[in-house]
Amino acid sequence: MTDTSVPPIPAWLAHLPTVGGLVVPWITPRTSDGRYLFGSVNRDRMEHALLRRWCGVCGRPHADRLVLLMRLSDLSRRCTSEPPLHPQCAAYTITACPMVAGRLDHYRSTPRRLDATMAPAPDSAARQGSPAEPWFAVWQDGYQVVTDHGNLAASYADRRPLRIRPITWRLPAIL
């Protein structure tokens, strides 16, 4: 039987480190003892990626299309603190990340200890232990960098999305 939670690593991402068969995104922080903290971000790399228009997964510059992976609560603000991704990096993340893929039904219940160079999500305290939100892929041809909750964020408030695709949105069953 094949474990679908560990997808094959695309050649595009072969330059990145792996843990447990999963690619470590470029913005993922590493602790002083060498562990990667999935679900957290290295603040310097996050800001670098946002400002220089680099992908948050592979760390390479964007071309003409990019994807913002956003929770339902991000859509109303039209911004996210996560850097945009190349379409191929977004496809891998949608399959590999247990939260984005919908394999986790709640957010982490205990906070992580972070170094000064690491940043929790702006609303991580409010999400702690809460049910997971639906995720969406917002396709764009660009974005502007704004400040949201004291952090830099990618915003599409000044442009119309090319498309918005649900990743884990489930309509309630009609009885």
Shape: globular
Judged by helices, strands and strand pairing, the structural class is alpha+beta
Q: N- to C-terminal separation?
A: 35 Å
Strand arrangement across the biggest beta sheet: 4-7-10
Strand count, sense and barrel status of the largest sheet are:
3 strands, antiparallel
DSSP E strands, number: 10
Beta-strand level of the residues, as a percent range?
15-25%
Helix content: 10-25%
Question: From the structure provided, what is the oligomeric state, counting identical versus distinct chains?
Answer: single chain
- Uncertain runs with pLDDT below 50, 5 residues or more? none
Run of helices and strands:
EEEHEHEHEHEEEE
Number of H/I helices: 4
Mean pLDDT: 87
Radius of gyration, in Å, reads 16 Å
Protein name: TniQ protein
What is the compact description of this entry?
It comes from Prauserella endophytica. The chain is of the alpha+beta class and 175 residues long.
What features would you describe in this structure?
There is one protein chain. The protein has helices at 43-52, 72-77, 87-96, 124-127, and strands at residues 18-19, 22-23, 41-42, 66-71, 79-80, 118-119, 135-140, 144-148, 151-155, 163-166. The chain is an alpha+beta fold and 175 residues long. The strands form four sheets. A three-stranded antiparallel sheet has the order 4-7-10. The chain has a three-stranded antiparallel sheet with strand order 5-9-8. The N and C termini lie far apart (35 Å). It comes from Prauserella endophytica. This is TniQ protein.
What's the layout of helices and strands?
Layout: E1 18-19, E2 22-23, E3 41-42, H1 43-52, E4 66-71, H2 72-77, E5 79-80, H3 87-96, E6 118-119, H4 124-127, E7 135-140, E8 144-148, E9 151-155, E10 163-166
Antiparallel strand pairs: 1-2, 3-6, 4-7, 5-9, 7-10, 8-9
